[in-house]
Amino acid sequence: MADLAGILKELRQERTKLDQAIEVIGNLVGRDGTGHKTRGSRPKRTLSVVARRKIAAAQRARWAKVRQIRAKKAA
Fold this sequence. Notes:
By secondary structure, this protein is an all-alpha fold. It has a domain at 48-75. The chain is built from two helices and no strands. It has helices spanning 4-29, 49-74.
């Protein structure tokens, strides 16, 4: 029969190498050990007042269109 203790030792060494490789690749991708993304070094992006107003106006227009379609269906 094969030397099971030796095989077990080799498998543990291989697992250690794989764990290290996974950790290195995870760090390169920007994830921690749990699979959650880590916060990058870039600062949070903020929108200008003009951009927020533009987005709000576009959303109001979309909702107005939805209400118009609903009113036509109800009539």
